[in-house]
Write a structure and sequence with these properties.
about 325 residues, 12 helices, about 75% helix, globular, 3-stranded mixed beta sheet
């Protein structure tokens, strides 16, 4: 690979300009992002723990939710610590290897989350449209396969894109006007022609977005038709309630992705992309556990019992 082809790229360094170069904003931004990251870690690891300790939550829906929480935790941990570091240190350099590794790992979990949300939509489709066969259709083996799929494709697509990034030449010190090593900013500072790498990224991104949205929309069209045909208003309300949290998470995630990659070329597009990237990589992993916990009575009941137990112990 590229590391054996020459020393230019292997010895290259990147300078991440970060979210803002305004010195007066560094400390406030550090405190804001530190708070967000703390909530993200506690929220996602807490969700995994709550699902594990409550037997009521040992169902396919919560199994997928625990996987989503794990993905969000990993994704945020790959990106946010470096963002926090660059807000408090003057040296904002990152090695070639470090930058490529950050992209590779972030890509794995970004792609995995895209399809994990699609898997969760399918789970809701089976629960609403085939409730009597739900436990049969969503067996442990099927659930494991549905989770393995997003992880496998995330790893494969990330390795493909990383390989072609390593085929590019990088010369000396390269300034990246962002806080994270994304594909677009890495190829923008390359000394060689990045056409193949850019086209692969475009094709994979379009495939991921279109295929996942088709799965989600198809599932929810069938859910909507089934709910409309339900004779009782109570049944319809319950069905919509079980899907509301997932629909909220999907809207925020895919809405941000579409806005991020549909920004027109303008003087402000760089700032808009940074804001979109922050929301996509830092804020959304914090929001998901909050969305699911606030709208779920079983999760809230488990949290309440844990708090009461802690108070009694103290």
């Amino acid at each position: 690979m590229m590391l054996t082809k020459g020393n230019q790229s292997a010895g290259a360094t990147f300078i991440l300009l970060g979210f803002s170069e305004n010195a007066d904003l560094q400390v406030p931004l550090f405190l804001v992002f530190l708070t967000i990251y703390t909530v993200t870690v506690l929220g996602n690891l807490g969700m995994i723990m709550i699902i594990k300790i409550n037997p009521k939550l040992h169902t396919p829906m919560y199994f997928f939710l625990s996987q989503l929480s794990f993905v969000d935790f990993c994704y945020s941990t790959i990106v946010t610590p470096k963002l926090l570091e660059n807000l408090v240190v003057e040296d904002r350099t990152i090695s070639f290897t470090g930058c490529i590794m950050q992209f590779c790992l972030a890509c794995i979990f970004a792609v995995t989350e895209t399809f994990m949300l699609a898997v969760m939509a399918y789970d809701r489709f089976v629960a609403v449209c085939n409730p009597l066969l739900y436990t049969v259709i969503m067996s442990q083996k099927v659930c494991a396969s549905l989770v393995a799929g997003p992880y496998t494709w995330g790893i494969v697509s990330s390795l493909i894109l990383t390989y072609f990034l390593l085929e590019l030449h990088f010369c000396g010190s390269n300034i990246i006007n962002n806080f994270v090593c994304e594909h677009s900013v890495i190829v923008s500072v390359s000394c060689s022609e990045p056409y193949i790498s850019q086209m692969l990224c475009f094709v994979i991104a379009i495939f991921d977005e279109v295929s996942s949205l088709v799965m989600i929309l198809t599932s929810y069209i069938f859910i909507f038709v089934t709910v409309i045909r339900m004779p009782s208003a109570g049944g319809s309300r319950k069905a919509f309630s079980t899907c509301a949290s997932h629909l909220t998470a999907i809207t925020i995630f895919h809405g941000t992705v579409l806005l991020l990659y549909c920004v027109p070329n303008s003087k402000n597009s760089g700032f808009i992309i940074k804001v979109g990237s922050v929301f996509y990589t830092v804020v959304i992993p914090m929001l998901n556990p909050l969305i699911y916990s606030f709208r779920n009575k079983d999760v809230k009941e488990t949290i309440r019992k844990l708090v009461n137990h802690s108070i009694k112990v103290c």
